[in-house]
UniProtKB/TrEMBL annotation:
Domain Myotubularin phosphatase: 1108-1584
Family: Belongs to the protein-tyrosine phosphatase family. Non-receptor class myotubularin subfamily.
PROSITE patterns, alphabetized: DENN, PH_DOMAIN, PPASE_MYOTUBULARIN
GO cellular component: cytoplasm; membrane
Name under which the protein is recorded: SET binding factor 2
Domain UDENN: 7-427
Source species, domain of life: Eukaryota
Domain PH: 1646-1753
Length: 1755
């Protein structure tokens, strides 16, 4: 029996201490006055009964009731029920202080009270019966307020002395003696929480999603805070949330109602569940790490810093749907036309239990099979049980799921294990559910009806638990009369006679003592174990576990032990591959175990090596979170297998498998130790049982022996625990001792095992490893002691630094520390005596010292073993001019994360890992070697890339796939989508690696461009300069000369100013790379000085004359497009509106522009610098292309200057505060004039073509959607129309009706199409106000910044060359590709280009002025030209396009590819690569429109970062001029010539059709309109293909065939005889060479024949032109041929159907056959004559006529 109430307390307002405005409460009386022995009086009651603070009130409030929960120091809960009412505050009414003890003054009437003070009646109990307490306190209040004739003393005494039966479903009727009758019902099971209706209420208040979030928050130990205006609601919500956690118990602070004075508790660091009143809402919103739930508003707020783990799928979805079915049963039928009559919700108490049943099922699924992961360490005197978390997570398939991991690591789960772990105890609903029902739950998940049925069954049980006897006698408790609290004449609550109460309590207790104690013995039973753990998802097992793979492993092991070396060599690579699968690893440990007798197995050296490699391969994948059983199974084998090194010196396997992080994982050792202890304890009790049964078993053939074998440790423990109380003291003592010594002996055994695996064979080497990289300990690098003892190792370095001989000592110390810490933890947990622990502590240093001594001999002897035969280093074939800098370092090339070459799941030859050497040349970093796999060993593997393309180089520690041990390695990534990941051989010293890295960095960032390979290569082999094509260039050259002469005569230009400069400044300075302030950062736009003091800055090369400028691609293209003339005065009859200005020939106007620019005729050269000032980097708007069909112009410029530095200068110069200029962004009126001049020129230009309005061509197919997406979500600031309207307006559709409200748009001017659209940044819009008169419109565009391009490229590289094969099957290549955001960026560029191209086609000009004008601007303008102008789709045209738009217009190739030291840290920004990818996308969609093929694009993509050519080396023509590489100096030697990529391409193109697209047959159509949706973009195979046979083909294809790296010559001399077998595999061979297309193979056939016939080979181009001309000359014609008879093979003649005019039925002509129907005749009329035909009959005549007619109409 237990007391119903421990204390009854009256608490009132304290008048003595009315502190600083805050009232206080004080305890007026308490009963009993002495504390009970078992329950001390709770502190702080006066705070909790008024959680909102003690305040006086102006009116009488209703009495209130709520329950506060207090937790004492032993974490026992006390439930304090508080009933608070208000009584008149006599002392403050202004009357005299003469009323005494509730007797009124006799004199007059009492004044109505004005101030009221709260008073609380509090009941403190350890039992949780809120409704009973409400009734008892209510009864006391009723007796007082209605002045009933009952003594309060007896009520209180009865209450304090009332005893209640213990749990178990019993009930008790009792009365306090005031005419009441009350019933207490105890729940059936103490362990199940009692909730009433609180859970249902919580879901009603917050909704399913929010409650689930709170549920996850509490389970993952986050802080949860409720607030509400009702205290009772707070209590209920906290109770509900806690009960949802069942079977877990909440063990952190739980304060359903927190008083005002204690609000600082909320900033405590521990998790909690707390409720506060909504009054404090404002105070709690500053809390950063607390999840706040507003019960009244129904919302929860999760701070950003909290990552809330959610339930694993599919459980989350199942739980949500189950809750939805229960809480919203109408949802299913809400859409039915004839819904069934409304399904009623279960009554709230039942609904509450149904919701709880859903959560019970959820926990049963979460913890399914948890008992199979319990490790029993001790049975007596108390069971000690450990939970194997990693095994549980691994087998559930939830290692990645952080939710379950957090739950298992939480305090609640630790409590769950200690409470529910023991195998013999009282069981409840959850035990049965988790053991027997999980299968049923799984089956029901797709059948809602069955699921609801199960939930209802469980709910019934939960309901019965709370209401065991629903039909018991009714309760009766008097209530106060209605409105009694408002009566005027209520006396204060009387003072109770304490002595009387004490007396009555004693009497009642004496009575109860005589009554028999109705204690209930808990019924214990064996806990059902249930099935073992199964995976939460029914995952399809991977290929890895196929029986075939296990067979491979078995065979390999048997070959090793049978000493069949050759077979072993063949099967080993396959066996090592198979060991990636878990089943194969398990199989390996089982198989090896069979070869061990008496715990030892001796091997010869070869066998030992093989076994070690297999062990290492197995251990490499025993990650810390997988179940540790594989490593645990290998543990005894490591000290079983050994080899003899010398007499008396044996080397055990453990010395060779120490490099794995698993050995330094404390958790692994604990788990393995506990498993071993469990086995020992099991065998201890099994043998004991056998001894007991021995006499009876003699005659029975020991049959029951199997039963014992089957018994698990848990079964035995249950049996033992059941017998324990019946055993004698001495027997008990004996059992405890046995167990303790079992654990102790295991601890000694494990200390030895740990010493074996932690003390390294070579102590000096590990010392070196650890000191060199202390930062790597945490990452589990080579050091033998990671994470756990990193700190302690560091300490010992500090203390003992400087002593050479302290090496061994140091290692010994760290190992001793690690083992001691382990021993302390496990021995304390498993109850080993202190003496034993001390003796272990003394023993460990000795074991370590002895072991180190033994290992010295082993290490010495193992060094004497003959080295393993290593493959010969193959020297690479070098390109002309290439030299080796670093001789080959022996390495092992690891796969780069692509599976093609690994022979993995994709099959194929296992080319990687390959053994060979790493070379560094002046141009490339290069690996050459042979595959490790014996079966493809005779192939050569080459992986190389240009040094200049390296984007990242990092030191790594990696698994050597061949020796299966950890080694130092290097991982180098290249922008050409290659990755070299190598492990250095032991023979390569760290110093050599450092030298290698230094050289690599030196060549990666050369001092000057003349140190790059582009120039180095040119020195050794002078390039043959082919004569220029005569027809084209001569005309340009003569033309330019005449222009120059004319210009000189006109005196318009100063030519030869450079010569003067040259004399002044002397020699040209080469090392100009480090000039400060030149490579500015992208984000800062600083204007170049407008007028450069030319004499000092420009160090011009001698011949930079106009002649040479005129020969540049820019000028040639201007001429082709007819974009005006170079001289100012036009001598032609037709007026020109644009002219070519040479004002930038000295690059003084704009450094990053070409020397010649196209500007409006009307603008003087002198005003250009002032215009340029308004644009970033002085990049003013200039014309770069003209659409020959519509006459529209494409212009480009840098973005406008905002109010940057320049803006400030301007605003100082302008006196008026608000300039009247319509272009507010700049006070430069020149800019406005320039824009006006542009507009005039553009408009007139278009009028000449008759194209000024859209009436001529209404077909602007710019769908409004394209505009909308292009301009995203912004709006034009100048006008309130949205972009869709602009699109419509652009499309010439008059929508004035739809936005009639806007007076702005009713302006007639704006109804027509603008002559010029300016595509600019959104940010420039506010600076750009256009007057109505200006016929131009600003289109704000969103584009990706360089930052985003860089980030996207990094992710793209990670997707294409992930460096490791992803373990998570979810992380597929396509997913990674999608995450990289690369395609959305291409989409945005192409979309912009298509829109601009369409606008140009439809009669408006466009100015593109985005960012600095050299990244996205170049991408868009060049793509527009490519789409609109077929010329640029030829080889010559594309070259011109790149030279003009990218090279001359100053795209910063060096900076974007970070080729110089200055931009070393800025990262790689592949702007040009994006452009090439866009071209590739267009090429894919229009394969017949391009003269060049996709290989040409790949060639450019590879070489624009390779530094092989000088073309892409610098950032602008100005810099190229400075370095003397802008013009090809004919006179000088080749010393500084460098190679030009275009010349090289021309040569290659002449030699073979390598860049030619055979499908090229351009149609003269309008601009191409590729589909730009992300879905129609294809991945470019440039990113993922490679050629491992020779390295990238882009270098070899340049050489003439005799230079090709011939495999045979190379290998024959060096590597002995090789077979002639070829490996044809996509990642190995160049596919286009191995499987050429039909044309290529025909060309090569012809070449071979010419060779045989000793003819001079004909140029392929001439041959191709002849063939195509022949094809063109023979157009497809239909003939009607006639023969003498059906058997004839040659026809008598033919009628060309192209000449036939008509075919009609006709009558027979002369000489027609007789007896033929008239309808069988028809006439065929050609332009020359009429033929009469006779068919067999009328029907066939009709068929003939139909056929002929259809041919005629086709033609």
């Amino acid at each position: 029996m237990a007391r119903l109430a421990d204390y009854f307390i009256v608490v009132g307002y304290d008048h003595e201490k009315p502190g600083s405005g805050e009232g206080l409460g004080k305890i007026i009386q308490r009963f009993p006055q002495k504390d009970w022995d078992d329950t001390p009086f709770p502190q702080g009651i006066e705070l909790f009964c008024q959680p909102g603070g003690w305040q006086l009130s102006r009116e009488r409030k209703q009495p209130t009731f709520f329950v506060v929960v207090l937790t004492d120091i032993d974490s026992d809960r006390h439930y304090c029920s508080c009933l608070t009412f208000y009584e008149a505050e006599i002392n403050l009414q202004g009357t005299k202080k003469e009323e005494i003890e509730g007797e009124a003054e006799v004199s007059g009437l009492i004044q109505p009270a004005e101030v009221f003070a709260p008073k609380s009646l509090v009941l403190v109990s350890r039992l949780d019966y809120p409704e009973i307490f409400r009734a008892c306190l209510g009864l006391i209040y009723t007796v007082y307020v209605d002045s009933l004739n009952v003594s309060l003393e007896s009520l209180i005494a009865n209450l304090c002395a009332c005893l209640v039966p213990a749990a178990g479903g019993s009930q008790k009727l009792f009365s306090l003696g005031a005419g009441d009758r009350q019933l207490i019902q105890t729940p059936l099971h103490d362990s199940l929480p009692v909730t009433g209706t609180s859970v249902a209420l919580l879901f009603q208040q917050l909704g399913i999603q929010n409650v689930l979030s709170l549920f996850c928050a509490v389970l993952t130990e986050n802080k949860v805070l409720f607030h509400s205006a009702s205290f009772q609601r707070l209590s209920d919500a906290c109770r509900a949330l806690e009960s949802l956690m069942f079977p877990l118990k909440y063990s952190y602070p739980y304060i359903p109602i927190l008083p005002a004075q204690l609000l600082e508790v909320l900033s405590s660091p521990t998790p909690f569940i707390i409720g506060v009143h909504s009054v404090f809402k404002t105070d709690i919103h500053e809390l950063l790490d607390v999840i706040i739930a507003d019960l009244d508003g129904g919302t929860i707020k999760i701070p950003e810093c909290i990552h809330l783990s959610s339930l694993p799928e599919p459980l989350l979805h199942q739980t949500q749907s189950a809750l939805s079915l229960i809480l919203h049963p109408d949802l299913e039928v809400a859409d039915h036309a004839f819904p069934p009559p409304r399904t009623a919700l279960s009554h709230s108490k039942m609904l509450d239990k149904e919701v709880r049943a859903v959560f019970l099922r959820l926990f049963a699924q979460l913890f399914q099979g948890y008992r199979s992961c319990l490790q029993l360490i001790r049975i007596h005197a108390e069971p000690v049980i450990h939970f194997h978390k990693t095994a549980f997570l691994g087998q559930r398939g939830l290692i990645e799921n952080d939710f379950l991991t957090k739950v298992l690591n939480g305090m609640a789960f630790a409590g769950f294990v200690s409470e529910r772990g023991p195998p013999y105890r009282s069981c409840d609903l959850f035990d049965e559910l988790v053991a027997f029902e999980v299968e049923r739950i799984k089956v029901e998940e797709n059948n809602p009806m069955k699921m609801i049925k199960h939930v209802r069954e469980l709910a019934e049980q939960l309901f019965k638990n709370e209401n065991p006897n629903p039909h018991m006698a009714f309760q009766k408790v008097p209530r106060p009369t209605e409105g009694s609290h408002l009566r005027v004449h209520i006396l204060p609550f009387p003072k109770i006679n304490e002595a009387r109460v004490q007396e009555l309590i004693q009497e009642n207790l004496a009575k109860n003592q005589n009554a028999p104690p109705a204690t209930r013995v808990e019924k214990k039973c064996v806990v059902p174990a249930g099935p073992p753990v199964v995976s939460i998802m029914d995952k399809v097992t991977t290929v890895f576990n196929s029986a075939q793979r296990l067979e491979v492993v078995r065979n390999c092991i048997s070959f090793i032990f049978e000493n069949k070396i050759l077979e072993t060599e063949k099967t080993l690579p396959a066996a090592l591959r198979a060991l990636k699968g878990k089943a194969a690893r398990q199989c390996l440990t089982d198989e090896l175990g069979l070869h061990v007798q008496q715990n030892r197995a001796i091997l010869d050296h070869q066998q030992f090596d093989y076994i070690i490699r297999m062990m290492n391969c197995t251990l490499q994948d025993c990650s810390s979170l997988e179940e540790y059983n594989i490593a645990a199974a290998l543990l005894p084998l490591t000290s079983a297998f050994y080899r003899k090194l010398a007499p008396g010196v044996s080397q055990f396997a453990y010395t060779c498998v120490q490099d794995h992080p698993i050995w330094t994982n404390q958790q692994f050792w604990e788990t393995t130790f506990y498993n071993a202890v469990q086995e020992q304890v099991r065998s201890l009790y099994l043998s004991a049982k056998e001894d007991n049964h021995a006499p009876h078993l003699k005659q029975k053939d020991k049959l029951p022996d199997d039963q014992y074998q089957e018994k698990t440790a848990m079964d035995l423990a249950a049996e033992q625990l059941r017998l324990w109380p019946t055993l004698s003291k001495s027997t008990q003592q004996e059992l405890v001792q046995h167990e303790e010594s079992t654990v102790f002996s295991q601890a000694i055994h494990f200390a030895n095992l740990m010493v074996n695996l932690l003390v390294p064979l070579d102590t000096s080497k590990n010392k070196l490893l650890r000191t060199s990289a202390p930062g790597d300990w945490e990452s589990g690098s080579n050091s033998i002691v990671t994470n756990s003892i990193a700190g302690s190792v560091a300490e010992s370095y500090d203390t003992e630094s400087g002593f050479e001989d302290s090496e061994n000592n140091d290692i010994a110390n760290s190992v001793v520390r690690f083992i001691t810490r382990f021993i302390d933890k496990v021995c304390t947990e498993s109850g080993v005596t202190q003496d034993h622990i001390k003796s272990l502590h003394c023993m460990i240093p000795g074991i370590v010292a002895m072991h180190i001594e033994t290992l010295e001999a082993v290490h010495r002897e193992s060094r004497r073993l003959p080295p393993i035969q290593k493959p010969k280093i193959l020297r690479p074939a070098l390109l002309p001019g290439e030299e080796i800098i670093c001789e080959g370092l022996r390495v092992l090339l690891d796969p780069d994360g692509r599976e093609e070459a690994t022979g993995g799941l994709l099959g194929g030859p296992q080319l990687l890992p390959a053994e060979g050497a790493l070379f560094l040349t002046t141009y490339r970093i290069l690996f050459r070697g042979t595959p490790h796999d014996q079966l493809v060993g005779e192939q050569t593997v080459v992986r190389s890339f240009p040094i200049a393309s390296i984007t990242k180089e990092k030191k790594i520690t990696m698994q050597n796939q061949v020796q299966q041990n950890m080694q130092e390695g290097l991982q180098i990534t290249s922008a050409s989508f290659q990755l070299i990941k190598v492990a250095f051989d032991e023979e390569v010293s760290p110093e050599v690696v450092e030298i290698f890295k230094k050289q690599l960095m030196k060549f990666r960032y050369p001092q000057s461009i003349f140190n790059t390979f582009a120039f180095a290569a040119g020195q050794t082999t002078p390039q043959i300069i082919l004569p220029k094509q005569k027809e084209k260039n001569t005309s340009f050259r003569t033309f330019s000369k005449t222009i120059v002469k004319g210009a000189k005569r006109a005196g318009k230009m100063t030519i030869g100013r450079q010569y003067l400069l040259k004399k002044k400044t002397g020699t040209i300075v080469e090392e100009r790379v480090n000039r400060p302030g030149w490579n500015e950062d992208d984000d800062v736009s600083v204007s170049d000085e407008s007028e450069l003091p030319t004499s000092t800055t420009l160090k011009a090369s001698e011949k930079s004359t106009m002649e040479q400028l005129v020969e540049k691609a820019c000028f040639r293209d201007y001429q082709r497009l007819g974009l005006g003339t170079i001289s100012g005065s036009s001598s032609r009859s037709r007026p020109e509106y644009f002219r070519i200005t040479a004002s930038n020939r000295m690059y003084s106007l704009c450094r990053s522009y070409p020397g010649l620019l196209v500007v409006p005729q009307a603008v003087q050269d002198s005003s250009l610098p002032r215009v340029a000032r308004c644009y970033r980097h002085n990049r003013l708007p200039v014309v770069c292309w003209k659409n020959s069909r519509s006459g529209t112009l494409l212009l480009r410029s840098g973005g406008f200057h905002g109010k940057g530095v320049v803006g400030l200068f301007k605003s100082q110069n302008s006196p008026q505060a608000a300039p009247t200029s319509s272009l507010e962004s700049s006070s430069s009126i020149e800019q406005e004039k320039y824009l006006q001049a542009l507009l005039n020129a553009v408009s007139v230009h278009q009028k000449l073509r008759g194209n000024n309005t859209l009436t001529v061509r209404p077909a602007l197919v710019l769908s409004p959607g394209v505009w909308a997406s292009l301009r995203s979500s912004t709006r034009l600031i100048s006008s309130p129309t949205s972009f869709i309207d602009v699109g419509a307006r652009l499309a010439g559709k008059d929508h004035s009706a739809s936005f009639s409200n806007s007076t702005y748009l009713q302006n007639q001017l704006l109804k027509r199409q603008a002559a010029l659209y300016i595509f600019g940044e959104k940010s420039q819009l506010r600076n750009f106000k256009v007057e109505f008169a200006l016929n131009c419109e600003f289109v704000p565009v969103e584009f990706h910044e360089i930052r985003q391009v860089k980030a996207s490229f990094k992710k793209l590289m990670r997707a294409c060359i992930p460096s490791t094969i992803p373990t998570d099957s979810e992380v597929t290549f396509l997913k990674a590709l999608g995450d990289s955001e690369w395609f959305p960026q291409l989409h945005r560029i192409m979309q912009l280009a298509v829109v601009v191209s369409e606008v140009l086609e439809n009669g408006s000009s466009v100015l593109v002025c985005l960012e600095e004008g050299w990244d996205i601007t170049a991408q868009v303008t060049s793509l527009v030209q490519l789409l609109s102008d077929p010329f640029y789709r030829t080889l010559e045209g594309f070259r011109m396009l790149v030279e003009k738009e990218w090279l001359s217009f100053g795209h910063k190739f060096s900076q974007r590819s970070s080729l110089t030291l200055n931009c070393q840290g800025s990262g790689f920004a592949p702007v040009f690569l994006q452009f090439l990818d866009c071209v590739h996308q267009v090429h894919n969609q229009y394969p017949t429109e391009f003269e060049f093929n996709l290989y040409y694009l790949k060639f450019l993509a590879f070489h624009y970062v390779s530094n092989r050519f000088k073309t892409f080396l610098l950032d602008s023509d100005y810099e190229r001029l400075e370095h003397g590489t802008l013009f090809d100096d004919k006179g000088e030697k080749h010393a500084k010539k460098g190679i030009c990529i275009w010349e090289c391409i021309d040569r290659m193109h002449k030699r073979s059709p390598i860049f030619f697209n055979y499908l090229y047959s351009p149609l003269e159509i309008e601009a191409l309109k590729p589909s730009v949706n992300v879905s129609s973009l294809k991945k470019w195979d440039y990113y993922i293909e490679e050629t491992l046979s020779t390295g990238p083909s882009y270098d070899w294809m340049m050489l003439t065939p005799k230079h090709f790296p011939s495999e045979d010559t190379d290998l024959a001399g060096e590597a002995g005889p090789r077979s002639q077998r070829r490996t044809v595999w996509p990642c190995y061979d160049n596919v286009s060479c191995t499987q050429p297309d039909a044309f290529t193979s025909l060309f090569s056939e012809i070449e071979k024949l010419e060779h045989k016939l000793n003819q001079v080979p004909e140029k392929w181009q001439q041959l191709w032109e002849r063939v195509t001309v022949d094809l063109k000359e023979e157009p497809r014609t239909d003939h009607l041929r006639y023969y003498d008879s059906g058997e004839d093979t040659s026809c008598k003649g033919h009628i060309d159907l192209a000449e036939v005019e008509m075919v009609i039925p006709a009558g027979p002509s002369m000489g027609a056959p007789k007896h033929t129907s008239d309808k069988a005749f028809f006439d065929l009329k050609t332009s020359k004559r009429v033929y009469n035909f006779c068919a067999q009959d009328g029907q066939s005549a009709q068929q003939w006529m139909d056929r002929i007619q259809s041919c005629i109409s086709d033609a």
